[in-house]
């Protein structure tokens, strides 16, 4: 076939390039929690952005900084593509910073990859530190409106495109330590029956080579899955950027050597080099190469995994840790009892952080200075044995920024001890139910905490390789780190579900009265909607600043429902929030009521809750009545209750 279709693609792409050059194409993604426009957050961001372009140029193309005080502290990261012209880099960063402030006026998190014909650059900001943090969402995508037709042409194009992707990815992730902008690759290649193809990949230099590889692979997979067949496009995540086209863009290809197109292979030669599979079907030479490549890739991943495990084990030895594998071969960390005793000063009362239903939590400091939280389970408690095994088995398999991280355990000398990351601000109930500390929880902070809890639950219910129902969600089981990010904790009573399992029944009711869904409390029915109910109660407590059990005779959910029906939901709002956006708070009251509906089937999933929290335009359904459990369903102390009858079972990954 001739080059006419390819030439049309090139001409239309070039016209698009001219328009992009004239106007600039900035891929802006605004997300995360919103901020009060009367807060100091936008002013802090404006101050940080005022000299951001100068700082990037002065620091060889990459700059990371923060400004302001919590909770309105702003973190920013900016960079230019390698080989930049200083004037073009300055102009690019300055333009994107201004664009970001104009387009993301209500959201705290955002990233922009953009530029013009001279340079590409990134500006990223958040109310949380983004430095050395790989972020693979949300994606921003921009693709050419042109398609590569007909399908026969695509079959010629795709293998060459895949080969170019592999070359560019390998070059980009092989860190160039001589440059601050160490993850970068730009290239052009000749394609059979097509114009030259231009491709660029880049990661922020603060992440590891492995993270860069994962990020760029994610971009490629996203494009390949949704847009393969389009005549050019880009996919970017906050941590990386991938783009290809039929024309040079961003001035990245001036000094790039063209890779010639591979010679076409005659059909006869391909037949002679083919083999057959077990069913007699032909496997072309390209198929053999693909199989070899897949096996090679798998071996590389295994090798990287071994390196990471070895590093973990080596670090453990510095704090008295040792390796241990359970019956499923799951790697866990076992700490020496003597080292834990030294770290906690023999479980000194001065190091006590809190006390729960099955033990006491102490602060510990290892000789290398690492701070940890040590949970010492009560001796002689059969139920404590189950809690201990359950928590170790689950948390060694779960990793999420909104889940507390289990560092290891100790079962020596009659002790059963869990060692967690140290979370300096303790549990959420110590803030929300304290008259003085509650003033620190502005609406922006409360929204951030609510959204973080929701994301942690979404991970447990849908996004992790396990499907977990927590069963004991309450504010005392939500920990807050130094930046008030929430971490769901205490997985002792959590329940593992099979992949296709949506509901189960149990004779062992484990949890805290007042937070337990009615179908679970009364009939032992467990599902993800049980956790949704508990989340709804916590959400209403966060808004009101009052404990659920403070509303004797009906509970907070029932009290809120009555005020909702009367058209007076604002009655439950904490007086400290009187200056904050009333409509947004009432929207969250509505979400809370949707979560505590008596009919479990009517309750939303956590994915729906996340969407509602992040959208200002999507309408939520009207809630129905919650369960009227009455004061008898709440314990006097609010402590955890558990009834025997269930047994601990080995966990399996899905």
TrEMBL record:
Keywords of this entry: ATP-binding, Glycoprotein, Kinase, Membrane, Nucleotide-binding, Receptor, Repeat, Serine/threonine-protein kinase, Signal, Transferase, Transmembrane, Transmembrane helix
Bilayer-crossing regions: 283-307
Main location: membrane
Places the protein is found: Membrane
Record: residues binding ATP: 375
Membrane topology qualifier: Single-pass membrane protein
Annotated signal peptide: 1-27
Domain Gnk2-homologous residue range list: 23-130, 143-249
SMART domains (alphabetical): S_TKc
Pfam families: PK_Tyr_Ser-Thr, Stress-antifung
Superkingdom of origin organism: Eukaryota
Residue intervals of the Protein kinase domain: 347-619
Protein known as: Cysteine-rich receptor-like protein kinase 40
Native species: Camelina sativa
Gene: LOC104737301
